[in-house]
Amino acid sequence: MIDDPQKTDRLITMLKCALPIQTNIPRYLGKNLASQSPNIPIAEQCNVIDVVYSGDEGGIVCCLDIGGANTAVAHLVSITHLIFNRNIPLAREIEAYQRHRNKKLKRQQGRAQGAQR
Fold first, then answer.
1. Is 0.90 topped by the overall pTM?
2. pLDDT on residue 46
3. φ and ψ of 12, to 5 deg
4. Pairing mode, if any, of strands 75-78 and 60-65?
5. 47-61: per-residue pLDDT in tens?
6. What is the C-alpha separation between 69 and 91, in angstroms, rounded?
7. How many angstroms separate the CA atoms of 79 and 77, rounded?
8. Which class for 21: exposed (0-12), middle (13-18), buried (19 or more C-beta within 10 A)?
9. 103: how many CB neighbours lie within 10 A of its CB?
10. Model confidence over 3-52: pLDDT tens digits?
11. How far apart are CA 7 and CA 18, in angstroms?
């Protein structure tokens, strides 16, 4: 199991109460989003307008407000791919979740590669 269910539920509840939350989109992610939605300009910053849990496999997923209400395409991105300002109220909690999840995923990938050899 990658995520601690109780900690994850608690974080999701806190995030939902704090919405919208401003986030920065890394360049690599902006390019990927632009290729999926070429008619929508992808800004460096946007708001997270909803969060959902996609299970242990996908973790916390953020719904981004890119293109406003006229957008027919939902932009859903794992919270681990976003950059949050350290001055927002939940910055520490988000960063702790990101570090923990990335660490667990790297361990899991290491085991999978070791088993293939």
1. no
2. 93
3. -60, -45
4. antiparallel
5. 999 999 999 889 999
6. 27
7. 6
8. buried
9. 11
10. 999 999 999 999 999 999 999 999 999 999 999 888 888 999 999 999 99
11. 17
Q: Which residue shows structure tokens 């999926």? A: 36
Q: Is 45 left (phi over 0), alpha (psi -120 to 50) or beta?
A: beta
Q: What does each C-alpha distance from 84 to 26, 56, 90 come to in angstroms?
A: 10, 22, 9
Secondary structure (DSSP) of 41-77:
---SEEEEEEEEE-HHHH-EEEEEE-SGGG--S-EEE
- In whole angstroms, what is the distance from residue 75 CA to residue 62 CA? 8
Contact (CB, 8 A) for 64 and 37: no
The domain locations on the chain are 5-112
Average pLDDT over residues 96-116: 83
Residue 52 makes CB contacts below 8 A (sequence gap 6+) with 12, 60, 61, 63, 76
